[in-house]
Amino acid sequence: MVIIMHDGFIKVAAVTCTVRVADIDFNTASIISGASEAAKQGARIIVFPELCVTAYTCGDLFLHKPLIEAAERGVCRIAEATANLDALIVIGAPVIYHAGLYNCAVFLKGGKVLALVPKTHLPNYGEFYEMRHFESAPDGLCSVSFCGADVPMGTSLILSCANVTDLVVGCEICEDLWAALPPSTLAARRGATVIVNLSASNASVGKSEYRESLVSMQSARLCCAYIYASAGYGESTTDMVFDAHDIIAEYGKVLASSRFEQHALLADIDVARVADERRRMSDFKTDLSDAQVVSFRFDKLTPTTLTRTFDKMPFVPSDVAHRSERCEEILRIASEGLAKRIEHTHAKSAVIGLSGGLDSTLALLITTRAIDRLSLGRDGIIAVSMPCFGTTERTKNNAETLSNALGVSMREISIERAVKVHLEDIEQSIDDYSVTYENAQARERTQVLMDIANKTGGLVIGTADLSETAMGFSTYNGDHMSMYAVNSSIPKTLVRHLVKYCADKFGGDAAMCMYDILGTPVSPELLPPQDGMIAQKTENIIGPYELHDFFLYCFMRLRYSPRKIYRVALCAWGGTYGKEEIKKWLALFLRRFFAAQFKRSCVPDGPKVGTVALSPRGDWRMPSDAQMSVWEKELEML
Questions:
Q1: What does the DSSP 8-state code read for residue 483?
Q2: Considering 11, 17, 50, 235, which one is annotated as catalytic?
Q3: Catalytic annotation on 109?
Q4: Catalytic one among 11, 109, 119, 500?
Q5: Which of 435, 413, 409, 437 is nearest to 424 (CA)?
Q6: For 619-630, what is each residue's pLDDT tens digit?
Q7: Residue 50 annotated to the active site
Q8: CA 589, CA 581: separation in Å to the nearest integer?
Q9: Which neighbouring-strand residues pair with 385?
Q10: Is the pLDDT of residue 432 over 90?
Q11: Which tens digits make up the pLDDT trace of 528-549?
Q12: Does the annotation mark 119 as catalytic?
């Protein structure tokens, strides 16, 4: 039976063991010990450095047959000693084929040598002179008598796991990665979701950063996981030092990295995500026409104990400096989009419903940037405060203060009388605080904004954010509608950081006002206040936005199943929210997401700023009547 290995997570290891130059017995024992320790920690793919059986720095000793024969015997001992380890083990050794010597990656599983992958690109410059001893990989597939068996050797080999979906391993060796056309590129096209690299890259100033960048970018370009194991202590230091730079990356992100350490570097890779990303990318084509597939299987499929960390706030960079750069970039993208729309429509004004809350504050900040970009006067921005039954003095005052501080035009238009008349017209009691009572206010506000925009020849700037759009927490044909929605792809957790970023930059009354807005509970303010305080708090109704944004990222960007979202949410948020609480809010998120598609199918234009967006004209096309039974059944099994 072929299965996805517990949500696609597989623990892997890059192991740099201590070696002695040309001491096969010592190196063999070191490799066996390293493999055993990594397997004990749960690793299913264990990768060692280039030529680790002999050590990389043997020089002209590679021309002596006794060393090469001893290396083969060492490989045989390693295969035998690790036969009981339920892991795919990859070690480096010299291999003779006909009259040539090849620098090979040797794949071991269950006591057998499964495959030999020779190095293609041999460095012969600077401190390297590999062509003195080795030959470049031969064309095509060879069969080599090695360790008492005929073993396939070639660069077109990929190793496919027979009982784990999407686990296919390709290989390249050290310099191969630095080449113009790395073998890993071809391996990925042949279906490899994991690339292993056995390396002996020496240390020099600045090289480690470049090396890590190469690994990261190659994993991104190929949409794969990448395990890089490099030589370290024990290699000859006659002219070079080897820094044991081990790296594990996945789709552009370095999951783990270490230097000058002699231990197993472990990480949990997600092969299901890699395969899913490839299916999403229309330009990633798998070509198996010249692939030579070697099959292997694991004896037992047990759950991977996750040590991998997951960002609580996937939309918000944790590093402060990076977060500031991201905030500036988002504000620039959104304001450039709005500037283009204002210019194209020859709008004479920009009309914003300013509530004194986070979303409308961000929309106003973006609009001021757009107006400044066009060198138009800020008095052309009309901020409209529309107090009604639920409006508090705090939010009303903040709307007025912010408008004055930013130098925009401010209008206050109470909508109480209009809403009361409307409720009377439809025979709705003023004391009936139902959804009709709430939506009547939201739709009246939208009508006021639209008509002011018509009167002043302007555009209504939308304030709804990505989180509200995902969960349908908006009034259809109310705040759901505008003429250009600048917040449309900005989630609530990021809205908060964008407003804080602006407050930190502004200073003065504007900053003080924005800090107070940041401290105000998120609310649509559609129900009467209690003792002058906000009575209707959004997160009491639909749950914490920090959790919902986490769910949104996992569901939309990573396309995780409910079970997988729940599992990683426990890893990220388990110390803050209990299991039942996470399960409850996840179920609510998914149900609201499916139910709200009819609103998303007709959202206004707005700029995409990140990797997750819900525009029906761009990233998300879903029928409004799609059923969630598949997801619901999995939810019920949590």
A1: S
A2: 50
A3: no
A4: 119
A5: 437
A6: 999 999 999 999
A7: yes
A8: 12
A9: 412
A10: yes
A11: 998 888 888 899 999 999 999 9
A12: yes
